[in-house]
């Protein structure tokens, strides 16, 4: 293969946002509730800030209301839990996220579990994950949900395929493996989940018809790890110093794109791949929260 189809999350995300904007117009017309998404941002981590701003912009674009709760980096865990409780009890807000990572002195799991599952549009609450496991209607974690939408948009065959997931995080790797094994499309794959303790990783990735990479290491996957005609979805995003660029950095994924792409039937780029889909899925979940009410 030399000319892979580029799986553009940007393109799919724009389509999803158009659909959501239409649904919001319809809600307005029928006197329904306008979806309202809130975000809690603790501290001033650059990447988190950029990401939350993009979420707020996306809300405006589709006609949602949005609220940003900005808190100081040295807020106590207790104070943060009070803010979470406020959002749980605020009927105007349909869904909200607490932007991760949180400062070291705050227990992320505790905060996640304090979120009302009916407003858990990030899909990280144990109730949401449990429902996903049982194939009950629920909020799916935004990034894996976005990836399934990309596969669907490009009609990438999944049934009976071997899907290898690199990375087992609760945010991407683990839920992704569950979704790809489900009895639906996209799904019905035979799934192998690999991680830092996996032996002979290359032997396993070479069997993958679909390779989903969420390991958090820049350009980790090289051409010799990918079989001809595979579909490769790259979840990683890394800012790497680059003096040839005006910004002073370039964005790299977990996959060595230029080297891997010629072997692929489908491949997602970084940036412009999975990233935009995460936000689109968050909006989809927020609309779902309104509909479930």
Explained architecture:
- Helix 2 links the parallel strand 2 and strand 3 (65-71).
- This protein folds into two domains: 31-116, Rossmann fold, CATH 3.40.50; 141-275, NAD(P)-binding Rossmann-like Domain (Rossmann fold, 3-Layer(aba) Sandwich), CATH 3.40.50.
- It is built from ten helices and eleven strands.
- The protein has 293 residues and is an alpha/beta fold.
- It is 39% helix and 17% strand.
- Helix 6 (142-153) crosses helix 7 (173-181) and helix 6 (142-153) crosses helix 10.
- The strands form three sheets. The protein has a six-stranded parallel β-sheet. It has a three-stranded parallel β-sheet with strand order 3-2-4, with helices on both faces. Strands 9-10 form a two-stranded antiparallel sheet.
Main traits of this protein?
three-stranded parallel beta sheet, Rossmann fold, 293 residues, 11 strands, six-stranded parallel beta sheet, 2 domains, single chain, alpha/beta
- The number of domains: 2
Q: For this structure, what is the CATH homologous superfamily of the largest domain?
A: NAD(P)-binding Rossmann-like Domain
- Rounded to the nearest angstrom, the radius of gyration is 19 Å
Helix content: 25-40%
Euclidean distance between termini CA atoms = 48 Å
Main-sheet strand order equals 1-11-8-7-5-6
Shape: globular
Under CATH at level 1, the class of the largest domain stands as Alpha Beta
Shape-level CATH architecture of the largest domain: 3-Layer(aba) Sandwich
